[in-house]
């Protein structure tokens, strides 16, 4: 069988279209015509030797092979961009202060820091993993250069919406229903107030007329995971960064009400950050979008 070498320009159009939800938007961003992008998508299926897309209403959705292709395309582009940045920007120096939500600290931070350090060994990074309010406060005060935080609905002067993630009810990896036998009120495990996800959970339960009680309150996400894994209470987070000891309940499981989506925002201390902060932001955004495929559009409008 002849060896296939995928065209990186084709893969970039493919990934950009899926992330934007429209290949027409991808063409505009990449400076191509829609017909050129359509030709690229046809070339991708020819190179893959199988259908990558299927019709879904007026647009396109990925086949199973397309889902696999998207994951590999992101990895190939990341490696290509890392190599290009390493060759062009080996002289980057300085100091970047990065802040992250706890949800992304363990699952995202090691890969982001490792990739950045390999390409730019002369740049020093100070990372802080804290609660949402502190992240926004620090980046607004100029004590962080970049901060990845949940959207509060109140934008900072220099912020960029990244994606929307579904909130999900979280329970132990092993267990039956969310309400223990004989319990009169649903036990909740939550972070200390103020917490957007805690507020969303209690509001949803109140609207549904479901009695609840705070069974466990933790100042940290690690404590929350421990409580949920032990079955002390149901909690609410997004599907990103879940440890193996817990699981996201399926929608409607146990009669639990639906939850809203939660926006993720990248805040910058300055409108035009320096080269090191700009490059770190690029790597961070790529990592976030790659770690949250459920949040990205599952289909896209045809070009």
UniProtKB/TrEMBL annotation:
Domain (HTH lysR-type) spans 6-63
Keyword match Transcription regulation: yes
Q: What's in the keyword line of the UniProt record? A: DNA-binding, Transcription, Transcription regulation
Question: What is an example of a GO molecular function annotated in this UniProt entry?
Answer: DNA binding
Q: Which family does it belong to?
A: Belongs to the LysR transcriptional regulatory family.
Task: Cite the PANTHER family for this sequence.
Answer: HTH-TYPE TRANSCRIPTIONAL REGULATOR LRHA-RELATED, TRANSCRIPTIONAL REGULATOR
Q: Mind telling me what this protein is named?
A: DNA-binding transcriptional LysR family regulator
